From TrEMBL:
GO terms for molecular function: glutamate dehydrogenase (NADP+) activity. Keywords: Oxidoreductase. Residues 203-444 form the Glutamate/phenylalanine/leucine/valine/L-tryptophan dehydrogenase C-terminal domain. This is Glutamate dehydrogenase. Coiled coil: none annotated. NCBIfam families: PRK09414.1. InterPro entries: Aminoacid_DH-like_N_sf, Glu/Leu/Phe/Val/Trp_DH, Glu/Leu/Phe/Val/Trp_DH_C, Glu/Leu/Phe/Val/Trp_DH_dimer, Glu_DH, Glu_Leu_Phe_Val_DH, NAD(P)-bd_dom_sf, NAD_bind_Glu_DH. Homohexamer. Belongs to the Glu/Leu/Phe/Val dehydrogenases family.
Length: 446
């Protein structure tokens, strides 16, 4: 890293103490930017680096709600409106007990570049709460969402900031949030949230988009080496929306997905994961993955704790959460002959794991590129809302596929242009950064 990058990085550390995930996300981008600053001295003169690391606006608010026992409960709500150079702030809401400002900022920072890479007119933002939906009744989740929106509504809008889902926020939560927004504002403003149900303004393919997109990205990476997913042994970590749809698409393309997980452990099913059963348990019953092995009845096993990556794979898709795949996991995957890794989650691989994959010549697709299909399809949902239209599944999936192929090609070309052929981390970071930096320059010192 050159002197300017080091100085700005140290400033970010000093001004955002204790926000380790945010620091990690910034360093990961900065480590690839040296050749960009050499080629574009104007970015340095306009202090683009300093500005891009400082969110345009950060909102933190109290979310009081009443549980089923009549007790008053308090959570903390966040919305970080990071960058609007390319369009309204866009990014999901995460409801998980681990959420604090550092997590929201890491996610918001990643989102700026991811969204730029999609080629759609969307800025970057992220939000959420330390609320834990697990074990809560529907009525509690509804009251929480209503209280959350009672503050959030004044900060968002179709042309301002468009939230969506992330971990802990799916169709149910988006419904309650949209209902409260509509009630407070007296506007049927469909474009204010994405991930809506299809009967009330949502887009077909949006639920599948992140997982499908990640698999489409892997297929493109494999193609560059004359390979495909057909016949690969695949591990998909997680068992939420991204993981389930990644499993379905990988199987459709001929991959054999032999394991998935949740926070309690993982299942190994050598016959290939039964997606319908997994969906029933996780989405239908909001149950635990340990149930899967018992109900599958084919000798598949549940391993409590442990590392899913030890099950061995040639293609690995981390689709659970940040920093879930570390150094020893990367080493373990290399031993089983892994050829491609793509991040369905945001920042699931640690910096050390990424280094190990890249040094071994493993195709590595970073989240900013590989999981961009979700937010890209959110932008397609916004398009449909703006034109009061609803597209078919086939048309929307074709658009998603074109976008993923485009992102892949742009990353590959950018990596080549900046002297790092085959390095998708360099391609994604630089491709996203240059687009946002150019727009920021054009808009003046704002
Ligand atoms: N939370 C998703 C992401 O990490 C989707 C965001 C969106 O659709 O706005 O990209």
């Amino acid at each position: 890293m050159d002197a300017t990058l080091t100085r700005v990085r140290d400033d970010v550390f000093r001004r955002n103490p204790g926000e380790t995930e945010f620091h990690q996300a910034v360093v990961e981008v900065f480590e690839t930017l040296e050749p960009v600053l050499r080629k574009h001295p104007e970015f340095g003169e306009a202090a683009i680096l300093q500005r891009i690391c400082e969110p345009e606006r950060q909102i933190i608010f109290r979310v009081p709600w009443v549980d089923d026992a009549g007790q008053v409960r308090i959570n903390r709500g966040f919305r970080v409106e990071f960058n609007s150079a390319l369009g309204p702030y866009k990014g999901g809401l995460r409801f998980h007990p681990s959420v604090y400002l550092g997590i929201v900022k890491f996610l918001g920072f990643e989102q700026i570049f991811k969204n730029a890479l999609t080629g759609m007119p969307i800025g970057g933002g992220k939000g959420g709460s330390d609320f834990d939906p697990r074990g809560k009744s529907d009525a509690e989740v509804m009251r929480f969402c209503q209280s959350f929106m009672t503050e959030l509504y004044r900060h968002i809008g179709e042309y301002t900031d468009v939230p969506a889902g992330d971990i802990g926020v799916g169709g149910r939560e988006i419904g309650y949030l949209f209902g409260q927004y509509k009630r407070i504002t007296n506007r049927y403003e469909s474009g204010v949230l994405t991930g809506k149900g299809v009967s009330w303004g949502g887009s077909l393919v949006r639920p599948e988009a992140t997982g499908y997109g990640a698999v489409m990205f892997v297929e493109e990476m494999l193609k560059t080496k004359g390979m495909s997913l057909d016949g690969q042994r695949v591990i998909v970590s997680g068992s939420g929306n991204v993981a389930i749809n990644a499993i379905a698409k990988a199987q459709y393309l001929g991959g054999k997905v032999i394991a998935c997980s949740d926070s309690s452990g993982y299942v190994v099913d050598e016959a290939g994961i039964d997606v319908a059963l997994l969906r029933q348990i996780k989405e239908g019953e909001r149950g635990r993955i340990s149930d899967y092995a018992a109900r599958r009845g084919n000798g598949s096993s549940f391993v409590a704790g442990g590392s899913i990556w030890d099950a061995g794979a040639t293609v690995a898709l981390p689709c659970a959460t940040q920093n879930e795949l570390g150094e020893s996991d990367a080493v373990s995957l290399l031993k089983s002959g892994v050829v491609a890794v793509a991040e369905g989650a945001n920042m699931p691989c640690t910096p050390k794991a990424i280094e190990i994959f890249q040094e071994a010549g493993v195709l590595f697709g970073p989240g900013k590129a590989a999981n961009a299909g979700g937010v890209a399809t959110s932008a397609l949902e916004m398009q449909q809302n703006a034109s009061r239209d609803a597209w078919t599944f086939e048309h929307t999936e074709r658009r998603l596929s074109e976008i993923m192929v485009n992102i892949h090609d742009r990353c590959a070309e950018t990596a080549e242009e900046y002297g790092a052929p085959g390095n998708y981390v360099v391609g994604a970071n630089i491709g996203g950064f240059v687009k946002v930096a150019d727009a920021m320059l054009a808009l003046g010192v704002i």
